[in-house]
Amino acid sequence: MSAQTSKKRREFIQQMTGLGVLGLAAAGGIFGAPYLKAEGARLRPPGAVPEEEFLGLCIKCGQCLQVCPYDSIKLEDVDGRASVGMAYIEPRERGCYLCEAFPCILACPSGALDHEHDSIEFVHMGIAVVHDPQGCLAKIGKPVPDGAIDRIYDHTKVLSPEEHRNHKAVIRADDPEKTVLQKKLLQKLEKHRGEQSCTICADMCPYPDPSKAIGMVDAKGGGLLPEIREACNGCGACVELCPADVIKVIPRKSYADLYGKG
Ligand code: SF4
Ligand code: SF4
Ligand code: SF4
């Protein structure tokens, strides 16, 4: 693909539409069938081996979810898309926050989460896409509503009933590390409550240098939009936190798959 074609493709995907991921896939065969398949796929925890191997190796022990300080990992229930007990992440309910030491990977006893992939440069879960740019609050100039921030308190299992009710997370001296981490997340998010031009996705991205994964850029026709960049590893934190629900992660796909190379 020429540099110019690649650039046009990136701009097309990053900046426009309102078609949604499935609409994009259908439009002109840009993505093709593999992306439709990926759209229905599960997002796996960091370090997951290729999907077919993962389905064979995950022994449904739940070790990864027990050590996850953000409660990001779930096990497939009987109504799930893959066999019962498989580990996955539902990013709109809780993304992964890319813990420095990847305790989920270290805890996995079966090789389903590969111990060779226990650092940030090897973790690649998928790739984010802004599937409905016209709904982005930064594009349309709407403030971040209270309800969008309050909703994230429901994702946090470590709050006292009072903290949950009042949407206020207070870090106490005797809070365990897991509680402190989740409360810090809420405290950082609180700074965006009522923000006039939303920057939550770019500001809250847990990648070590978030500007390599996502950044706010001028949008065609005015306003701002997030631009997904090469280091995005599909952790799904932006999917969880976006007040307008306009970001998705396509599991197992890469920046090059979706946006083309530089
Ligand atoms: S990296 Fe951390 S937040 Fe993400 S799934 Fe693993 S333990 Fe949970
Ligand atoms: S942009 Fe950041 S928060 Fe969103 S999926 Fe990529 S790495 Fe995660
Ligand atoms: S989180 Fe990002 S994509 Fe979502 S409304 Fe805010 S700026 Fe737009």
Give your account of this protein's structure:
This protein is of the alpha+beta class. The protein folds into two domains: 3-132 and 234-259, no CATH class; 146-190, no CATH class. The chain is 35% helix and 10% strand. The chain has helices at 3-15, 20-26, 33-39, 51-57, 63-67, 103-107, 137-140, 146-153, 161-166, 177-190, 200-204, 237-241, 255-259; strands spanning 73-75, 87-89, 126-130, 214-218, 224-228, 247-251. Strand 4 (214-218) and strand 5 (224-228) form a beta hairpin. The longest helix is centred in the C-terminal third of the chain and has 14 residues, at 177-190. 37% of the residues are buried.
Q: Assembly type of the shown chains?
A: single chain
* Hetero ligands: iron/sulfur cluster
Largest sheet: 2 strands, antiparallel
Q: What would you report as the Rg, rounded to the nearest angstrom?
A: 18 Å
> What proportion of the residues form beta strands (DSSP E)?
5-15%
User: How does the helix and strand content classify structurally?
Assistant: alpha+beta
Q: Helical proportion?
A: 25-40%
Give the terminus-to-terminus CA distance.
10 Å
How many structural domains can be distinguished in the coordinates? Answer: 2
SSE pattern: HHHHHEEHEHHHHHEEHEH
Give the strand order of the largest sheet, numbering strands 1, 2, ... along the chain: 1-2
Number of strands: 6
Shape: globular
Poorly predicted runs? 1-37
Overall mean confidence score, pLDDT: 87
Number of helices: 13
Salient structural properties:
alpha+beta, binds iron/sulfur cluster, two-stranded antiparallel ribbon, 2 domains, disordered N terminus, 13 helices, single chain, 262 residues
